[in-house]
Design brief:
The complex is a heterodimer of chains A (about 180) and B (about 525). Chain A is mainly α and about 180 residues long. Chain A is built from 8 helices and no strands. Chain B has a two-stranded parallel sheet with strand order 1-2. The chains are: A mainly alpha (about 180), B mainly alpha (about 525).
Chain lengths: ~180, ~525
């Protein structure tokens, strides 16, 4: 963490390579986080780029003591996704075709994967907002409890409870039962 | 119980992430083993499902290229570090410029077409590049300031369009661009102000006074009287006995003009007719705030007035000998000056036309942003408000020579800005100016040499004037040089003071027709 703080500080001071390092470190997570929240791969790609451009524009005013960098970055992503979803709320819903995000050699395997992703996204949309947000940040974007708490402005205890409930709900939605 | 299970679940999840096995975790909490097993498996199932979600490699590559492009574009700030980075910056800048030049030459039509592009359109990048080249090819600080003001206005209009379309991200990026232009504008103005200060020494403000007024009439009374008159006159309290020097009673503004102005317009007209001591008060007033000693007459008698008289020349006199002397003597007082008393010292004195242009552009920017504020999402409103404030500050930094001169006809263009959008609409509709600028009483003798000059300086120099200039393809005096001869003398005062220029034109036209 200390290393990341140093890299961030260099980026704040205008070191472009430091920012690139941060970019490489967080790009996939941000993409994954956005992907499960939007409807198509193209949207996820556009938004991911926007998030990093925004981050670069704002990095000079960033201060670590106010917010850890990861939380700050995911906050930007969160706001960007909210803006986007608000604008595209009236458009058509996700189709299974669009859920395909991964190119792999075996078409059968790829289809199975895409279907599982589609199921997951569908299940996430049925969760309450708070649970969905925690589940996405915690299990898909792989943030720590502390980072999720700071990103969402909630206490760690609340995040733990939401995480637990989200997993229980997802289990019910994906497998149709709570026990067994 | 529930809380405990949530805690245990989180602990086990973290342990599993760090490499511990599920069994060992379950053995720690045998009483919750069944629940924990299911929940932890589900959590890892979610992770497993999400794991294949990866950005396409080609997208990742191009996104990175684009990010570097953005860094090139935005990273114009000089990094305070070693030489190689500056060299690298210069080299990349030169490469970018040459590439852009080649691009413009190759596709001139595209560049022209891009001038109307909005941030969400493909040609917007071309537009940015063209503008960047414009900035790079502008060398004078004043010209740069003017250009940045124009570009800031363009950004403001783009922000308004994006706000109407609800494109928050584009608003943010465009606002960032606009802020950069405003920042560059401020920097350019500060450079101009610094160079002006360097040229004029301590007397930075009045240096470029136009020849229409007589600076010699104004300044001398301030400098000369202090030595002989001051010691005796400061001790007697009231200002009634001696109108000239005792006027110091600090804030009591002897003239109705704004106290920050060095020489109010109203006092000038009479001064031309007959130089009177009444001119001095305005010059003295600014200093009054400096030494608090003047309030007690006893003190002032013992340590005579020099302090009060000294500071004045710094502000008023352009090149008076006394000014220099006083400045050196009382530099300590000048350091104690609160910034307010030095009003205008930091302002950039610019050629009138350019200052008007800058003021008009910043005023438009403010008006457009205020409109955009209504349609913009809440998340970007603070940014827009900050930009409005910044534009205001930039506007206040600009100062035409006429604004600090003693010319009775001039009115600060940036008065418009301070009053915001409503004022601009006033100007557009050509309502008479009703600001704080003193209107010369009709019975007072008034010099009207202004008939040979454009009377735009009298009223509001604003967007409509600019539009009129645009429509006629250049700087158009709103009153033609030969027209004033036809104007009856009774009308002249009103045209030169506060009535709109278009109104005077109409009157003159009708007079012409009648004759």
């Amino acid at each position: 963490m200390l290393i990341e703080e140093q890299i961030v500080q260099r980026a704040v001071n205008g070191d472009r390579e430091a920012f690139t390092a941060l970019y490489d470190r967080h790009f996939d997570k941000i993409y994954r986080y956005i992907y499960v929240k939007v409807r198509s791969q193209a949207e996820a790609e556009d938004l991911t780029q926007d998030v990093f451009i925004k981050a670069y524009e704002a990095i000079k005013s960033y201060k670590w003591r106010d917010l850890p960098f990861t939380a700050w970055l995911f906050k930007i992503a969160h706001n960007r996704v909210i803006d986007h979803v608000r604008k595209t709320a009236k458009e058509k819903k996700t189709s299974l075709d669009e859920a395909g995000a991964i190119a792999s050699g075996d078409p059968v395997y790829m289809t199975e994967q895409n279907f599982e992703i589609y199921q997951l996204k569908d299940a996430l949309t049925k969760l309450p907002d708070a649970q969905r947000e925690v589940a996405t940040l915690r299990f898909i974007a792989e943030l720590s409890i502390a980072e999720v708490a700071v990103t969402l402005g909630k206490s760690e205890g609340t995040v733990k409870a939401l995480q637990f409930n989200a997993i229980a709900s997802l289990r019910k939605l994906l497998y149709g039962k709570i026990n067994g | 119980m529930a809380n405990q299970l949530e805690e245990i679940f989180n602990e086990c999840f973290e342990r599993l992430l760090s490499g511990e096995s599920l069994d060992s975790c379950l053995k720690r909490y045998p009483q919750y083993a069944a629940d924990l097993d299911q929940m932890l498996r589900m959590a890892f199932d979610v992770k497993r499902r999400a794991y294949p979600i990866q950005p396409r490699p080609e997208f990742k590559y191009w996104a990175r290229v684009r990010m570097h492009g953005v860094q090139d574009y935005l990273g114009r700030q000089p990094v305070a570090s070693s030489g190689p980075s500056i060299f690298h910056w210069r080299r990349s800048w030169a490469v970018a410029l040459s590439a852009m030049m080649a691009f413009v030459l190759a596709t001139g039509g595209t560049a022209a077409a891009s001038s109307q592009a909005m941030p969400d359109q493909p040609l917007y990048g071309v537009k940015m590049a063209v503008e960047q080249a414009q900035v790079a090819l502008t060398f004078s600080d004043v010209d740069k300031a003017e250009l940045h003001a124009q570009l800031a206005e363009k950004r403001a209009q783009e922000v308004a369009v994006m706000a109407n379309q609800g494109k928050t991200d584009k608003i943010v990026t465009t606002m960032a661009n606009m802020n950069r232009h405003l920042e560059d504008l401020e920097n350019s103005l500060q450079k101009v102000a610094a160079t002006d200060a360097g040229k004029a020494g301590t007397a930075t403000m009045v240096a470029p006074v136009p020849s229409t007024t007589t600076p010699s009439v104004v300044t001398p009374p301030v400098i000369t009287p202090p030595a002989p008159v001051a010691p005796t006159e400061v001790t007697p309290v009231p200002s009634t006995t001696t109108p000239s020097v005792v006027t110091p009673p600090v804030i009591t503004p002897p003239t109705p003009v704004a106290p920050t102005e060095v020489t109010p317009p109203a006092t000038i007209a009479p001064s031309i007719v007959a130089p009177q001591p009444t001119i001095t008060p305005p010059a003295v007033t600014p200093q009054e705030t400096i030494p608090g000693t003047t309030t007690t007459p006893a003190d002032t008698t013992q340590t005579p007035v020099p302090s009060t008289t000294v500071v004045t020349p710094q502000i008023t006199t352009p090149a008076g000998k006394g000014a220099a002397d006083n400045a050196t003597r009382d530099s300590k007082f000048s350091q104690q000056l609160p910034p307010k008393t030095v009003t205008g010292a930091n302002k950039a004195v610019i050629d009138t036309n350019k200052a008007r242009s800058i003021n008009t552009n910043t005023a438009k920017s403010i008006a457009v942003l205020q409109n955009a504020l209504q349609n913009a999402p809440d998340s970007v409103k603070p940014t827009i408000k900050a930009a409005i404030e910044r534009a205001r500050k930039a506007n206040e930094q600009v100062q035409t020579p006429s604004t600090k001169s003693t010319d009775s006809k001039t009115i600060l263009p940036n008065i418009n800005i301070n009053r915001g959008k409503d004022n601009i609409t006033d100007n557009v509709t050509r309502k008479p100016y009703t600001g704080s600028t003193p209107v010369i009483p009709p019975n007072k003798p008034r010099l009207i040499p202004s008939t040979d000059k454009p009377t735009t300086s009298s009223g509001s120099v604003n967007t409509t004037t600019r539009d009129a200039q645009k429509s006629t393809g250049g700087s158009v005096p709103t009153v033609l040089p030969d027209r004033p001869k036809l104007v009856p003398s009774a009308i002249k005062p009103s045209t030169s003071t506060s009535t709109s220029t278009s109104g005077s034109r109409i009157i003159q036209d009708t007079n012409t027709i009648i004759k």
